[in-house]
Amino acid sequence: MTGIQKCSPTPLLARVQTSFRTSYTEKLMGESRVIFRWRSSLWKLIWKELLLYTVAFLLISLVYRIVLKEEQKEVMERLITWCRQQSTGLPLTFLLGFYV
Predict the structure, then answer these.
(1) Dihedral angle sign, alpha carbons of residues 17, 22, 24, 28
(2) For burial by CB atoms within 10 Å, which of 5, 78, 92, 93 has the most?
């Protein structure tokens, strides 16, 4: 033997994972990985409510667009207008500022 050891080839999975990590994906996904690993992350506190809100919004939107007839859509639009008038109008960024 000459004393030179051959390097074992990298496993396929390791090569795929390294090739997947480009600079673009690091910029795109890098912060999200940190956000969910952070112990007191705001996203960890509100992700369930955010998911519930998104699903409810999509469900109501689909019902409005597909199921309701024209007369029912007019009633729904009046309800939406009334809810907008009754809302307090506090911006979400203002409310989240108290979290910090």
Answers:
(1) positive
(2) 78
What DSSP designation does 97 have?
A: T
Contacts of 44 (CB under 8 A, 6+ apart): 36, 38
Determine what percent of the chain falls in helix, strand and coil, rounding each to the nearest 5: 70, 0, 30
Supply the pLDDT for residue 67: 95
Rounded-to-integer distance, Cα 80 and Cα 74, Å:
10
pLDDT in the model for residue 8: 55
Question: Residues of the chain with pLDDT > 90: what percent?
Answer: 33
- Whether the CB-CB separation of 42 and 96 falls below 8 Å is answered with yes
Rounded to whole angstroms, the Cα distance separating 53 from 46 reads 10
Whether pTM exceeds 0.85: no
